[in-house]
Amino acid sequence: MVQRTLARYLTEEQRNKGVITADLKFLIEIVSRACQAISVAIGKGSLGGVLGEAGSDNVQGEAQKKLDVLSNDILLDANEWGGHLAAMASEEMDLPHLVPHRFPKGEYLLTFDPLDGSSNIDVNVSIGTIFSVLKCPEGADLSTPEAAEAAFLQPGTAQVAAGYAVYGPTTLLVLTVGNGVAVFTLDREQGSFILTQENVQIPADTKEFAINMSNQRFWEAPVQRYVAEMQAGKEGPLGKDYNMRWVASMVADVHRIMTRGGIFMYPLDSKIKAQGGKLRLMYEANPMAMLIEQAGGAATTGRQRILDIVPGKLHQRVPVILGSKNEVDRVTGYHSA
Ligand code: AHM
Ligand code: MG
User: Where is the Fructose-1-6-bisphosphatase class I N-terminal domain (predicted)?
Assistant: First the structure.
């Protein structure tokens, strides 16, 4: 059987369906190569000297791990020379990274969380890279990193591509260019991503939920109600027994939902209310919401569709409820009941 590589999949999307441009194809291939390089670094672990703290904090005041910094550098280096990008923004950088003057500029903006699930790096549990692609508005001011922030402040509906790599027992790339969701498996010997699943569909119903239960006392009433109803099992109003999973790597939790359905929640709670939520809109919630919707699921804050939010700032945080459509609709409904 002929293997369909990522390059071939993208070429077909470009040639037959006109879904993507040559530049977007190039951009996604470069991101995928960066993810391969990150996968190799992670695979070396202690032998590569890549585990542990970097000794610095990021813009959110979180301690950076060596692999956070390394993954960020890999993505920046891979993407700045190709001529396909206007600017990049990352969880690990306060301000956007402009394409250096010595390289040509392109029409796309790339945002990423270079290594999501940082708390799992040193304990050998799945982690990942999340990315989102936007078009740079005509005439955007890219003269300084400060001025460039405005170009990024577009709702998730404007994304032209989104994806994540999950570095688990297998390294996978899960991608949408707005035409369904495709999964690619990294063939480590060949060094290329091979298409292993197309048209991913998330079941509308589920019996599995993912939430950090240690925050229960801080949740709002609608989430309290929903989780209590799930825990009540067959005898409760939902009439079924639920199972719970929480990896604490969003990529791993979302990938489980892509594979067998489920609902993921990092809702608003009184502890994080002032900052608006835990997860970041532009490079965590938006790309995941696009992927989930493309696979037939739903993604809201409890009060609003995530993809409709117009961002006020680059590192904005939002509550996230996503996954199997009927369950997301139920808990979203509880927020307006
Ligand atoms: P990070 O980007 O600093 O790794 O934080 C995001 C992660 C998500 O991957 C995960 O869903 C969540 O934080 C886990 O949070 P908690 O440790 O509060 O359960
Ligand atoms: Mg993250």
Answer: 5-198
Residue that is last in its domain, among 135, 170, 197: 197
Based on the fold, state whether residues 145 and 229 are members of the same structural domain: no
- Which residues define the annotated binding site? 91, 113, 115-119, 212, 278, 284
| Number of domains making up the chain | 2
Q: Are 222 and 335 in contact (CB under 8 A)?
A: yes
pLDDT in tens, 262-290: 999 999 999 999 999 999 999 999 999 99
- Tokens encoding 124: 């050998």
Letter string b/e over residues 153-170, b meaning 16 or more CB atoms within 10 A of that residue's CB: bbbbeebbbbbbbbbbee
The DSSP H or E segment spanning 148 is helix 145-152
Q: Residue 161's domain is classified under what CATH number?
A: 3.30.540.10
pLDDT digits (tens, 9 = 90+) for 159-177: 999 999 999 999 999 999 9
Q: CA-CA distance, 171 to 165, in Å (whole number)?
A: 7
DSSP secondary structure of 286-307:
HHHHHHHHHTT-EEE-SSSBGG
User: What's the CA-to-centroid distance between 90 and ligand 2, angstroms?
Assistant: 10
Binding-site residue numbers for substrate are 116-119, 212, 278
ipTM of the complex: 0.97
Q: What is the CATH number of the domain that holds 293?
A: 3.40.190.80
Q: What is the pTM of this model?
A: 0.96
The rounded Å distance from CA 254 to ligand 2 centre is: 12
Q: Which ligand neighbours the alpha carbon of 130 most closely?
A: 2
113 lines ligand 1 (CB under 6 A): yes
Do 284 and 216 share a structural domain? Answer: yes
- Coil vs helix vs strand at 276: coil
**Are 325 and 237 within one domain?**
yes
Of 67, 118, 119, best ligand 1 pocket probe by most atoms within 8 Å of the beta carbon: 119
